[in-house]
Amino acid sequence: MSDDARSANHDGEALESLSADERRFPPPPALAEHANVTEATFTAAAADDLAFWAEQAGRLSWATPPTETLDWSGAPFATWFADGTLNAAYNCLDRHVEAGHGDRVAFHFEGEPGDTRTITYAELTASVCQAANALTELGVKAGDRVAIYLPMVPEAAVAMLACARLGAPHTVVFGGFSSDALATRILDCGVEHVITADGGWRKGKSSALKPAVDEALERCPDVKNVLVVRRTGQETAMVEGRDVWWHDLVESQPTEHAYETFPAEHPLYIMYTSGSTGKPKGILHTTGGYLVGVAYTHWATFDLKADTDVFWTAADIGWVTGHSYLVYGPLANGATSVMYEGTPDSPHQGRWWEIIDKYGVTILYCAPTAIRTFMKWGADIPARYDLSTLRILGSVGEPINPEAYVWYRKHIGHDRTPVVDTWWQTETGMHMISPMPGVADGKPGAAMRAVPGVSVAVVNDEGVPVSDDAAGYLVVDKPWPAMLRGIWGDEQRYVDTYWSRFPGVYFAGDGAKLDADGDIWLLGRVDDVMNVSGHRMSTAEIESALVSHPKVAEAAVVGATDDTTGQAIVAFVILRSEAGDGGPDVVAELRTHVAKEIGPIARPRQIMVVQELPKTRSGKIMRRLLRDVAENRELGDVTTLTDSTVMDLIKGNLSTTS
Length: 658
Ligand code: 6R9
Prior knowledge:
Blueprint: H1 3-9, H2 29-33, H3 39-47, H4 49-56, E1 70-71, E2 79-80, E3 85-86, H5 88-92, H6 94-101, E4 105-110, E5 116-120, H7 121-137, E6 146-149, H8 154-166, E7 170-172, H9 179-188, E8 193-197, E9 199-202, E10 205-208, H10 210-217, E11 225-229, E12 243-245, H11 246-249, E13 262-263, E14 267-273, E15 281-286, H12 288-301, E16 310-313, H13 320-332, E17 336-340, H14 351-359, E18 363-366, H15 368-377, E19 392-396, H16 402-412, E20 419-422, E21 456-459, E22 470-476, E23 486-487, H17 491-499, E24 506-514, E25 520-525, E26 529-532, E27 535-538, H18 539-547, E28 552-562, E29 566-575, H19 586-597, E30 606-609, H20 623-630, H21 646-657
Parallel strand pairs: 4-17, 6-7, 6-8, 8-11, 11-12, 16-17, 16-18, 18-19, 19-20, 29-30
Antiparallel strand pairs: 1-2, 3-13, 4-5, 9-10, 14-15, 15-23, 21-22, 22-24, 24-25, 26-27, 28-29
Helix pairs in contact: 3-4, 7-8, 9-10, 12-13, 15-16
Bound molecules: ligand 6R9.
C-alpha cells in the first residue's frame, strides 16, 4: 500500500493485514479447460451487460419470451424482462421431466435421525402438483401471501414451489425463530395461510414447531388455515376448522396441476432480514429476473455440470442462501442436490463428511462459521472419510478468514479444489462478487471480482471510486436481474436504505478494500467498523488475526465504549479442542499475537474465552449482543438467535472466570 493510499483512507496498517496473505491457488488445469466461465465471458458481459442478461434469459422456458431486458426509467425501481411471462415451478420441475430427465434425482434428503428419501424430478413435480391442488382447495390464489415455517425437510421445498406454481408469494420463516418473529412477519405482509410441521429434529431431539404457530396466531386473527406436516410424530394440538394435516389433504390430491403463467415481475417471495435498526425488512423478489440471476450464477460460480455434479448447499431454507442455491438455482438448472435436516454434530462430528462420502458430493457450499467449527473439532475427523469427489468448495455469509480458507481447501478440498468466496445479500438475490473457479487465481480471504454481468465499485465518503489498494464502501453501480424490487409495504424505506447514501448507486452496507490487483476484500458491515483512538479498524480483520493463532478456532470482536480511546477492542474467542483450556497465559499470548499481526493499536483491551458465540440462522455473529456483554448492559432482543441459551452460557462463563 502506498503512503498516499494509506493516509487517504485513514484505515492505516490495520486494514492491510487482511490482504497480507500471499498464498495463491490457480485453478486445476482440467477444471479450467472445461470451465463454464472463461475470461472471454467477462469481456463479453462487460461489452454489453444487457445483451449478456438477455442471453442468460434463454436459460429459462418462457411462455412469452421477453423482448425487453431492463426498464430503469423509474429508478431505483427496476423491471426486468417485463413483457415476458412464465411459471417458476414449471421452470424448476416439469420442463426437466419433459426433456427426459424425470428420473434424475432432484434431492437426496438426509434426515437428522438417519431417515433418507431420494426424490426424482418426476416425483418432485408430482408432489408439487399435489400441494398446489391442496392449497387451491384451501383457497390460496395468485397474489396471496403464504407463510412457511418448516424444518429442513423436502416438504419445505415442495411448499415453496407449490406457492410459486400458484403465483402466491411465500415468506419462509426460519424454523429456529420464535413465535414472536413469526407473528411479526405474518402481520407485516398480511398472511392468511401458514404451512408448518409438528416439529423437527435437532441435536438428536425432536423440537416442536406447531406450539409456536399457535402462539403466534393468537395475534394474527386473519390467518384462515394451517397446513401441518407430520415430521416428528410428537403430540400436536390441532385447532378444529383451522388446522389440517398435510398427509390428509395433500397426499390424496391428483398429481397433475395445470399451471398459470405470470408476468416476469410477478412477486415470487418475500424474505425478512434484519436491518441495523428498526423492524425486519420484507425484501421482495419477483419471478423472471430472479430466476435468471440464480440460474446463471449457480451454473457459473459452481461450474455446474448438471448431469454429473452432486451439489450441496448446507444452509437452511429459511435463509436466502437456501432459497437461491438449495431451491431455485439448482432446480432451474436441473441439478441434483443434497438436503440435510440437522446439525453437523448429530450424532457425531463427522456427519457432514459421512454425507459427502455417501452421496459423492462434488460441490459443497457453506458458511465460514461452519468451517471454523470444523477447525475447532480437528482435521482428523474429515480425514476418516472419502471426500475425493469434491471439486469445488463455496463459502458464504461472512468474510472467510484466510486461515479458514486454507484449512477448508487443505482438509476438505484435498489441497486441490478452488474455494469460491461468494459475496451477496438477501437483497441482491444472487451472487455478486466471487472468484470464477476456472479463471481466478484464488486468494485466501478475497471475494475477488464481480461476477460476469454485474458491476460493483468501492467508493469513499464522497462516493468517488477509490484507487486500487484502498478501502471504502461497497456499491453496485448497475441494476442486476435478481435485485430486490423493494421492501414490502415501505417504498420509502427501500429508497432511503439502499439508494440515498450515494445517489444513483446501490449501497450495500459493507466495507470493502481493493488490493493492488484491483481484487475485492470484504471488511464486514460498515457498522462493524470500530474507531479506536481515531483509527478505523474492521472487526473482521482482528478476528482473522485471532483465528490465525493455532489455539483459536473462532473469534468475535466488538468495539466497546471506552472513556479514553472512544472505543476499545473486546474479543470473544473459542479455543480449538487440541488447545485444551489454552494454558494460564492464553489471553496475554493472544493479545500479543494480535499486536504482532496487525500492530499495537489493534491489541484487544480484553479477551474472553467462551464456549459458544451467539449466531443468526445464517451463521453471522450477533455482535450487538456481545457489545451488550462487553459494556455490561442488559441484553437486547435475542429473538433472531438460532439458540437463545448461548447468551446465558456466555454470561455464566464470564461470571465464573472473571
Ligand atoms: C447471502 C447472505 C448479507 C451480508 C452482507 C455481508 C455478509 C455475505 C459474504 C459476506 C463477506 C462474503 N456477507 N457473504 N461478507 N464475504 N462472502 O449472507 O445474505 O444474510 O442477507 O447477509 O452478509 O455483510 O452484507 P444476508
